[in-house]
Design a protein that fits this description.
Layout (H helix, E strand, L loop, with lengths): L8 E2 L15 E9 L9 E10 L2 E9 L8 H7 L3 H4 L5 H12 L3 E4 L2 H14 L9 E3 H8 L9 H7 L10 H20 L6 H10 L19 E6 L5 E7 L2 H7 L7 H9 L2 E6 L3 H15 L2 H6 L6 E5 L7 E4 L9 E5 L2 H14 L17 H4 L13 H15 L4 H16 L3 H28 L3 E5 L5 E5 L2 E6 L5 E2 L16 H17 L5 E5 L44
Parallel strand pairs: 2-5, 5-6
Antiparallel strand pairs: 1-9, 2-3, 3-4, 7-8, 7-9, 10-11, 10-12, 13-14, 13-17, 14-15, 15-16
Helix pairs in contact: 5-7, 5-8, 11-18, 13-16, 13-17, 15-16, 16-17, 17-18
Length: 576
């Protein structure tokens, strides 16, 4: 493929990116009159509907319905519908068929639309038909969000008078439907001031518009509906937060409705602008987000990372090495296992290795004590404290640790599995579950390390992505990407997001490789390796999955979930 000139698509998007524009949406406003019962009783006496598109009326539907029961006097007083009017009217079954044909695939609108749809769907099911599955818009909910401060209440009659609608509700189906249609047009004009130009924007507005920062919704008006990265900026143009999305417009607008995290309120209060970088695929978006966060270190992204710093488990460079948790790789990388997300995760793996192998746990100099340390006296570790430990014997233990970190994970996992079975056989289930969690932590970090090593050794790899997109990896790092049009772009052209240097920034390079590996896991079956000079495979044996077969994301700590005698962990191959 011959690359074209790279280009980053920033900020603005065409109207085609805004979803279905509201002026192209067909709405069907529905109103019903009933005998006053509940939906399960039927009791529909009149149905009125009007189809609208682009502010114009396309047609109306109106009919009385014989409910098969008498109309209560109070309902007659309210609506003017009498039993004598309903006797010659058609029964509900044929009316429902005609109504469904009239509605078609239009968006259903109603004032308290759940009431109308509740009766209609119950009637459809009673007649052996399927429910309406159309999208629906409630003008009552929209009015509460958009004009609640201007009117004493949001009843249809009150709103019709307040906005001087040409049709007023009369508690008759078609009149009320026409009044609701005019109200919809008024509310759409108000919603446009909040950047509501597409159908999905309108459907989400009842929850968004009630947000304290709803006035800032206009910042999302020009955002594209495409995968990419978004940046919230403050008044001075500083980047507050970086995120990725499959649909940039929908994701940014979701901050005004469904996202209830505490920091989001403060983020939106400080935000004065949102800009985007459109990407060719979600893979490019994930990598670009990671690079921008590492480069810019935005304040609100930094809050999310404050819980822990990356750590490694290290075999200390001394005559009798021991395991230590460190914050950086110093010395031989082969003597380091990681990175771990925090100190606690690293400490759990240290506990696992110490449970499986008799590596020393003390930190004193050899020969400084007359007796071995407590762990050695209990037979759980070798100890050089007394000065009588053979270096060759201890060297075999250290070699086993290195082998367990690399091509022989069974050196560590097999003793843990045996220990787990022994504890379960003794009905010490809580202790057995703790051993299994330690083993699972070892499997997790070895899988993480294998992913990094496999991508690092993969050389130049070209991927064919869904939708005709593609990408090129160099030693597991994304260096180029293109969309369905075949236009190649280099990620280095995005300001402030350079490709991490594997020599100068090994931590950043490995973080990106993990990001790529996680994306490949999620896209399994939808991505093809077009070419690879090194391959995307691991020559090491597969790792077992040290969890019960029905376990969820996190292990449980109770008897029901604890290992049982003879129930060995299920073996599961890993991607790399």
């Amino acid at each position: 493929m011959s690359p074209r000139r790279p280009s980053a698509v920033l900020g603005q998007a065409s109207l085609d990116d805004l979803g279905t524009p509201l002026h192209q949406v067909t709405f069907c406003v529905i109103d019903i009159e009933t005998t006053g019962g509940v939906a399960a009783d039927g009791g529909i006496t009149e149905i009125g509907a009007v189809r609208l598109r682009g502010g114009e009326e396309l047609g109306t539907f109106q009919t009385l319905v014989n409910p098969g029961v008498s109309v209560p006097p109070q309902i007659t007083v309210l609506t003017g519908i009498t039993d004598a009017m309903l006797v010659p009217a058609p029964r509900l079954g044929p009316v429902l068929s005609a109504l469904r044909e009239f509605v078609g695939d239009a968006v259903i609108v109603g004032h308290n639309v759940r009431y109308d749809l509740g009766f209609l769907n119950a009637a459809l099911e009673a007649h052996g038909d399927t429910r309406f599955t159309n999208e629906s818009v409630d003008t009552c909910a929209l009015a509460r969000r958009l004009v609640r401060d201007e009117v004493p209440n949001c009843r249809l009659g009150t709103l019709a008078r307040a906005f001087r609608l040409p049709h007023r509700p009369t508690h008759r189906a078609l009149d009320d439907a026409l009044a609701t249609g005019h109200l919809l047009h008024v509310l759409l004009e108000r919603a446009a001031g909040l950047g509501v130009l597409g159908l999905d924007d309108l459907l989400g507005l009842p929850t968004m518009a009630g947000h304290p920062q709803a006035a800032k919704l206009k910042m999302t008006q020009g955002l594209p509906r495409a995968p990419g990265v978004y940046r919230f900026r403050d008044r001075g143009g500083r980047v507050l937060y970086v995120g990725k999305a499959t649909d940039l417009r929908s994701r940014v607008r979701s901050y005004f409705s469904s996202d209830e995290r505490r920091k989001v309120g403060q983020l939106l209060r400080e935000t004065e602008a949102v800009d985007t970088v459109v990407c060719s695929s979600t893979l490019e978006a994930a990598v670009l987000e990671l690079r921008l966060i590492r480069s810019l270190d935005p304040r609100f992204n930094r809050q999310g990372r404050a819980r822990g710093r990356p750590t490694w488990v290290r075999l200390t460079p001394e005559r009798y090495p021991r395991l230590s948790v460190v914050k950086a790789v110093r010395g031989d990388p082969a003597d380091h296992l990681g990175p771990f997300p925090n100190h606690r995760a690293a400490a759990r793996v240290v506990e696992a290795v110490q449970t499986a192998l008799p590596i020393r746990r003390c930190s004193g100099a050899a020969g400084r004590r007359e007796a071995p340390c407590a762990a050695a006296q209990l037979g759980r570790a070798l100890c050089p404290c007394a000065g009588d430990l053979d270096p060759a014997v201890y060297g075999r233990v250290v070699a086993a640790v290195r082998a367990g970190w690399g091509p022989r994970p069974d050196v560590i996992l097999s003793p843990l599995a045996e220990r787990m079975d022994a504890l379960a056989a003794a009905e010490r289930f809580e202790e057995a579950a703790e051993v299994r969690e330690r083993a699972a932590a070892v499997v997790a970090i070895l899988r993480r390390r294998r992913r990094i090593d496999a991508l690092r050794a993969s050389g130049r790899t070209e991927l064919a992505l869904p939708g005709g997109a593609g990408a090129v990896l160099e030693d597991g790092l994304l260096v180029a990407a293109w969309g369905a049009d075949g236009q190649v772009r280099s990620l280095d052209i995005v300001a402030g997001a350079p490709t991490p240097d594997p020599v100068l920034d090994p931590e950043g390079a490995d973080a990106e490789r993990l990001c790529v590996a996680a994306w490949l896991d999620r896209a399994l079956g939808r991505v093809t390796v077009a070419s690879s000079t090194g391959g995307l495979v691991s020559l090491w044996p597969p790792l077992p999955e040290m969890r019960p077969r029905d376990a969820g994301p996190a292990p449980r700590r109770d008897r029901a979930d604890a290992p049982r005698p003879g129930r060995r962990p299920a073996l599961a191959p890993v991607p790399f």
